[in-house]
Design goal:
mainly alpha; 2 domains; about 120 residues; 2 strands; binds zinc ion
């Protein structure tokens, strides 16, 4: 974000809100806030919260796959099967085995489109 028009705009507003603070300090404040809310950091925090609610093991994932015959839980395809959180982690779902299902890429993308 450094030197982007968005950063300049935030800096301009901060100068008005916090008169007397040097730009270097306002810039550091912007960087701190941006890093605290970065998508990667938010994903990491959500996964940690989900794992505190429940955590599946590789053996449990293999058992879930076996239960579904290695196929997508929605359409029955056996192409490009991925682990899906039934209640998405971003919506407060856990990482436990009871919240995991196998989905093909197509169904996983459709699910997100319908959420
Ligand atoms: Zn599918």
């Amino acid at each position: 974000m450094s030197d982007s028009p968005e950063r300049e705009e935030v800096l301009r507003k901060l100068r008005v809100l916090l008169p007397g603070f040097p730009d270097i300090r306002l810039g550091i404040a912007i960087d701190l806030i941006v890093s605290a809310f970065s998508p990667a950091r938010i994903r990491k925090q959500r996964l940690r919260a989900a794992q505190e609610k429940g955590r599946h093991t590789p053996a449990e994932w293999r058992a879930i796959l076996r239960k579904h015959g290695g196929k997508c839980a929605y359409c029955g395809s056996n192409q490009d099967i991925h682990k899906d959180h039934i209640i998405p982690i971003s919506r407060g779902g856990s990482d436990g085995a009871d919240n995991i299902q196998p989905l093909c890429v197509h169904c996983n993308c459709s699910k997100w489109a319908n959420l």
